[in-house]
Design goal:
The model has no long low-confidence stretch (mean pLDDT about 95). The chain has 12 helices and 13 strands. By secondary structure, it is an alpha/beta fold. It has 2 domains: about 120 residues, Aspartate Aminotransferase, domain 1; about 220 residues, Aspartate Aminotransferase, domain 2. The strands form 3 sheets. Strands 2-8-7-6-5-3-4 form a 7-stranded mixed beta sheet, sandwiched between helices. The chain has a 4-stranded antiparallel beta sheet with strand order 9-10-13-12. Strands 1-11 form a two-stranded parallel ribbon. About 50% of the residues are buried. A hairpin with an 8-residue loop joins β12 and β13. About 40% of the residues lie in helices and about 15% in strands. The longest helix has 21 residues. The structure holds pyridoxal-5'-phosphate. Pyridoxal-5'-phosphate binds next to α4.
Length: about 350
Amino acid sequence: MEPRDLSAHSPYVPGRGVEEVARDLGMAPEELTKLSSNENPHGPSPAAVEVLREYAPKVHVYPKASHTDLTERLATEWDVEPTQVWVSAGADGSLDYLSRAMLDPGDRVLVPDPGFSYYGMTARYHHGTVASYPLSKADDFEQTAAGILDAYDSERIVYVTTPHNPTGSELPRAELVTLLDRVDEHTLVVVDEAYGEYADVESAAGLLDDHDNLAVTRTFSKAYGLAGLRIGYALVPAAWGETYARVNTPFAANELACRAARAALDDDDHLEKSVETARWGRDYLREELDAHTWESAGNFVLAEVGDASAVADASQRAGVIVRDCSSFGLPGCIRISTGTREGTKRAVEVLNRVAREVTEA
Ligand SMILES: *Cc1c(COP(=O)(O)O)cnc(C)c1O
């Protein structure tokens, strides 16, 4: 007895967790600065934590009102109909729902390379195939409509990440509008705004009224600091009506996550602090790292360090975990998430030292 042929499915490679690394190194988790998964160094909003405590004794019931309340809160926030808000287990869950809603077997999606691996994975899970458009290091990973359309061959879904992980580049609004106008009628453009809060531009959600071939994904995992709860959402075209009810996993977003997300949405102070620290951190990393770096609109910076796997290993041994970007198809580069001010400073000090040692070795 065997599962079906999964040889085309490559496993997702996450940044390593603090506990596993600490165990390997024989260190206490507190001694480590984890800057490998773009998490919020300030933790979750205290208001969200309070709600988690309050509702923990009530998780024996299925989430119902909590899900509806979050959906309605988000609909108000984005000025869309509640049916346009697809709450899911992380934004990754939304990508799955979009695949379910859009893909017939054999349909192709177009994804950025380098880019977030889950776009291709979810397409394959849903019996789709994957093509890519290049973002080139030589052009500083610039994102343009022309660059995407060059590779475009009438795919069913085109994925755009802005700010882009792991490069930090953005697709300007005018370019997005061009893309939306030029793709074929049956193509959905998915704009992944997992890092949207850190950028200095408006969300693509504002284009939903005028473009019925656009979906936007957002998450509570990054700026809201709720990665462990797995909660995110997609904003979809109004014309899709009740489609969500046909594709969603029953009760996919859990009670605590829905309630905490709503509390986090109301905690402006925590969000502001998180964004401010990230903006400070990306500037600091760019100024202070002895490496070529790229401008970033996210809570991370991509840096070219030569032997990236040696640098990432040495840095980890010194207590700072960063992401080797080989799995993104960017050998030679590491991605450093912004930490607290203290954590970011420590990262710069460690990385500059170990990069020197690796080069001299
Ligand atoms: C982190 C991330 C997501 C979503 O993460 P979830 O935790 O599933 O919400 C989506 N896209 C990109 C590019 C990301 O980096």
